[in-house]
Here is the input.
Amino acid sequence: MAKLQVVDQNNTKVGDIELAPEVFEVEIQPEILNLVVRYQRAAVRQGTHATKTRGLKRGGGRKPWRQKGTGRARAGSSRSPLWRGGGITFGPQPRDYSFKVNKKVRKLALQMALSSRVSEEKLTVVKSIDLAEVKTKAFAAVADKLGLGKTLIVAKDADEKLVLSARNMPHIKVIEADKLNVYDVLLYPELVMLESAAQDVQERLK
Here is the structure.
């Protein structure tokens, strides 16, 4: 069982935390991470794009000219895809892009994503981040002491002061522990977990 130091918001060591190997030391399989990231991205696609087929185009009910005797090609509708102003053949239609991935596979992928941050030494556990008021400048000072770049911060509960103070910083995202997901962990090169959130995630993923 690996140990990781716990620091305060001034980046001073205040203790240690033991990390469960079944959560933070899992063998990484890129194909599983890829599958779950595609699953997440597909689930949020709206799928509302649409084109009009010949049946959806207005007009075209009258046959443009008689079938025989004109010397021209046969035509049944002026809304044929072959005509200018006609419908679209095989164009995109509204659809659901989501697909099923088993819960155990999603859980395993999250364990792998967390393990990758531990192996890269990109996981920092912070005792707590306490802000006196909602102020970006106050949070920026904490982020500077912790040396945060593009970072995902995981808190156990929605701390309004922390969320509101950090939201104006485009390279930092604050997320609740129960909403932790593979895509966000992989998107942000650095991961900061408040100690309470780390313990909560560890218990849920064991």
